[in-house]
Specification:
With 200 residues, the protein is α+β, with helices and mostly antiparallel strands. It has two domains: 149 residues, Pnp Oxidase, Chain A (Roll), CATH 2.30.110.10; 43 residues, no CATH class. Helix content is 27%, strand content 36%. The chain contains five helices and nine strands. Strands 1, 2, 3, 4, 5, 6, 7, 8 and 9 form a nine-stranded antiparallel sheet that branches. Strand 5 and strand 6 form a beta hairpin. The longest helix has 15 residues. The protein is elongated, with a radius of gyration of 19 Å. The two termini are 14 Å apart.
Length: 200
């Protein structure tokens, strides 16, 4: 049975509702999303990241800007993410342009992280070749020593946040016999959203 008439006009309201449901039903990381980026030549790569911010401006995640995804983002600032909640039989796909969040916003989130995660952000040369896990542990220990007794660990300059500003948000609802319901929201210049359906 179609749920079209039950959907709100604002996709962020619908997404927040679904995420709230997933927080009650998903066993791990309901905010996990598959992030797809690509090189300027169009070579794609995808990986799971965590949603760390959401408002009317878009969807926020954080990463090491020197990593593979960071370099792809800086050279080709477009991406897509997909949330898939098996427990709900629902998924959400977001496509859009990327912008870096402000220094203040990045600092504020970084300071909420566990101390070990803040130290780890300094120790990891994300996406670079690693000789052994012991090598990584040595880097962690060296930064633990550097910041010993210091709770206010600064954010590394390469550790940044990015916001996906959606050009489309698609909501997918599992249907019997693969007859899924797909609703796509696209932003209009007046701040409203236009909605249409897609064939499954």
């Amino acid at each position: 049975m179609s749920k079209e008439n039950e959907l709100p006009d604002n996709p962020y309201e619908l997404f927040s509702d679904w995420l709230g449901q997933a927080e009650q039903s998903e066993p791990n990381d309901p905010g996990a999303m598959c992030l797809a980026t690509s090189t300027p030549e169009g070579k794609p790569s995808a990986r799971m990241v965590l949603l760390k911010g959401l408002d009317e401006r878009g969807f926020v995640f954080y990463t090491n800007a020197d990593s593979r995804k960071g370099q792809e983002i800086l050279s080709n600032p477009y991406a897509s993410v997909c949330f898939h909640w098996k427990s709900l039989l629902k998924q959400v796909r977001v496509e859009g342009e990327l912008e870096e969040v402000s220094e203040d916003e990045a600092d504020a989130y970084y300071n909420t992280r566990h101390r070990g995660s803040r130290v780890g952000a300094w120790a990891s040369k994300q996406s670079q070749s690693l000789g052994s896990y012991d090598e990584l542990k040595e880097f962690v220990e060296s930064y633990e020593s550097k910041f010993e007794g210091q709770e206010d660990i600064p954010r590394p300059p390469y550790w940044k946040g990015f916001r996906i500003k959606p050009t489309s948000i698609e909501f997918w609802i599992d249907g019997e016999y693969r007859l899924h319901e797909r609703y796509v929201f696209t932003p209009e210049e007046n701040g409203a959203w236009k909605r249409h359906m897609l064939y499954p």
